[in-house]
Amino acid sequence: MEFAVSREGTTLVTLHGGSNTTAREDAAAELEETFESLATEGTLVDWAVTDAEVHEPPSAPFDPYTIAIEFDVVVTVEADDAEAAGERGAETIDAALAEAGVDSITYRSSPTASA
């Protein structure tokens, strides 16, 4: 049986930006591009970047910003039941994000599976 498995998370992106606003926008755009490429490959079936906040501002001129970006991702997996689908979906999400170079991830929810 096919299940859609979703998960909410937060990742940290470090980059140089001219201001808090541009740093947040650039970090969100970078993550959106990554998710779009994963969707094009067929790994993700849905995704959203839901919020971006400055996690750590620069401590000196020319230091980078660290931006905390909240996201939601959805994958589809084959499994016998929702519990197995949740586990398989979580593994699929972890592997896809790791392969795409998305790191420093904290999940805000357990995987949710729906048939």
The outline comes out as elongated
Q: Ranges with pLDDT <50 over ≥5 residues?
A: none
Distance between the ends: 8 Å
* Helix percentage: 25-40%
Order of helices and strands: EHEEHEE
**Percent of residues in beta strands:** 35-45%
Radius of gyration: 15 Å
Can you count the beta strands? Answer: 5
Mean pLDDT, rounded to whole units? Answer: 94
Number of helices: 2
Structure in words:
The longest helix has 22 residues, at 20-41. This protein has helices at residues 20-41, 82-99; strands at 2-15, 46-56, 65-78, 105-107, 112-114. Strands 1, 2, 3, 4 and 5 form a five-stranded antiparallel β-sheet that branches. The protein has two helices and five strands. The protein has 115 residues and is α+β, with helices and mostly antiparallel strands. Strand 2 and strand 3 (65-78) form a beta hairpin.
Key traits:
elongated; 2 helices; alpha+beta; 35% helix; 115 residues; 5-stranded antiparallel beta sheet
Summarize the structure.
The chain is of the alpha+beta class and 115 residues long.
Task: Describe the secondary-structure layout.
Layout: E1 2-15, H1 20-41, E2 46-56, E3 65-78, H2 82-99, E4 105-107, E5 112-114
